[in-house]
Amino acid sequence: MNKKERAKKIQAILDELYPDPPIPLHHNDAYTLLIAVILSAQCTDARVNMVTPRLFARANSPKKMMKLTVEEIEELIRTCGLAPTKAKAIWNLSHILVDTYGGQVPASFEELESLPGVGHKTASVVMSQAHGQPAMPVDTHIHRCAKRWKLSAGRSVEQTEKDLKALFPKESWNKLHLQIIYFGREYCPAKQHHAAQCPICSWI
Fold first, then answer.
1. Helix (H, G, I), strand (E, B) or coil at 29
2. How far apart are CA 60 and CA 54, in angstroms?
3. Range(s) of the domain holding residue 106
4. Are residues 153 and 105 both part of a single domain?
């Protein structure tokens, strides 16, 4: 079985297990998704979802976020880790969104990646899940699974993204990256992974 055939079989399994995967981070619009993704760096989605209701009750738009101080934002997001850095990024990008983009979250990779605290993965999530543009955000789960499933050599997330894009249809990317995240958590964890019991690793 070559990579393309393996990818097709993997996609069929993922479609059966996760036909309509929800977005793990709770949000209401492109801005709240952007903030949630920034907070998720080196932090679990579950923790982010515990923190954002309190944060968004105070400020759920760039204009409202600007009115908070960096210290207030930091206090609200403290349990997410890296709070000082994330708070500054959130405050600064909120100003830029208001001053440059009329309070809207831009819909291009170049513009998103120019914002403080926004790397390629964060931009990919926003482009995919908020703007509906084809993207393949690669997190630790996807990076790990792609390597285990011999779909990518896995030397870097950039290479993994490129390899997966070449193997799967473009129209499936937005759904696929969510499916792999859920699969990685449920069946293919980093530790205590039992390959014989994994619906994919058991036959790879």
1. coil
2. 10
3. 30-129
4. no
Per-residue pLDDT of the chain (204 residues; tens, 9 = 90+): 899 999 999 999 999 999 999 999 999 999 999 999 999 999 999 999 999 999 999 999 999 999 999 999 999 999 999 999 999 999 999 999 999 999 999 999 999 999 999 999 999 999 999 999 999 999 888 999 999 999 999 789 999 999 999 999 999 999 999 999 999 999 999 999 999 999 999 999
Task: State whether 141 and 122 are in the same domain.
Answer: no
CB-count burial class (<10 Å; 0-12, 13-18, 19+) for 190? exposed
Domain termination residue (choose one: 129, 145, 167): 129
DSSP 134: -
Among residues 83, 109, 129, the one where a domain terminates is 129
Q: Are residue 106 and residue 177 in the same domain, yes or no?
A: no
